[in-house]
Design a protein that fits this description.
Blueprint (H helix, E strand, L loop, with lengths): L9 E4 L5 H12 L3 E6 L6 H13 L3 E5 L5 H15 L2 E6 L14 H25 E10 L3 H4 L5 H20 L6 E7 L12 H8 L10 H12 L10 E4 L6
Parallel strand pairs: 1-2, 1-4, 2-3, 4-5, 5-6, 6-7
Length: about 250
Amino acid sequence: MIGIDLGGKVALVTGAGQGLGRAAATRLHAAGAAVVVNYPPDEAGRNAELARDVVAGLGDRAAALSADVRDPEQVDAMLSAIRERFGGLDVVVNNAAVIRDRTIRKMTAEDWDVVIGTDLTGVFHVCRAAAAIMTDGGRIVNIASISGVVGFYGQANYAAAKAGVIALTKVLSKELASRRITVNAVAPGVVLTDMGKTIPEEVRAKMLAQIPLNRFGEPDEIAHAILFLASDLASYITGQTVHVNGGWWS
C-alpha cells in the first residue's frame, strides 16, 4: 500500500475556517502535518471563532493565525510567527477567496478591488512571503477555479482573479524550480460550500446539467487533490492546473 505521510511537515492553509480550506487543513493534518489555520480578522470575531473550532477539532500540531492576505504587512507577520513557532514551512495552500458576483454594468470598483485583492493579490503576497522561509523541496498549491477557464456570467472579477492565479502558478513554478519547490493549482468546479450555496438555485440546475458525473463536488474531493500535490507522490509535477470538476467543460 502506498500512503501519504506528511509527518514532520508544516503546512499553512489560508482562509481555512470553513469550506475547502477547512477540508484541506483537516486532510493535511490527518496525513501528519502540523497545520496553521489562517483566517481574516473581522470586528465580530466570527472568523476567529471558526478557525479556533477547526484547530480544536485537529488537536495537537495545529494553530490559528489571523492575517488579511490583502495586507502584505499582516502576511509577513503571520509568516514570521510560523517560523518562530514551527521553525519553517513546507506546504502552502492558497485558498482564501471571496466572491462579489455582478454583471459588469452593476459591478463597482470596490467589488472588483476586493475580489482581485483577496483572490489574486493575496496569493502573490503569501507566495512571496512563504518563499523566503519555505524549505527546499516544498509545495505550493494555489486554489483556482473552473470560472478562471470558462468565465461565468457575472464573474468578471472572480474569473479574472482565478485566471491570474493559474498564470501566477506557471511563473512561480519556473522561478522556484531551482529549489525543488513545486507550484501547482487546483481548479474546482462547483462545490456546495457556503460560497457555492450563494449561487441561485436555477443557475445551479443549469450548471448541474453540464456535469457528466451528474453531481456537484464535495470539499473532501478537492482536499484529496490538494493532499496529493502536497505529497512526495507529486514531486515531478509543477506548473500544472488540476481540474476537479466532474468532467464539466463548456
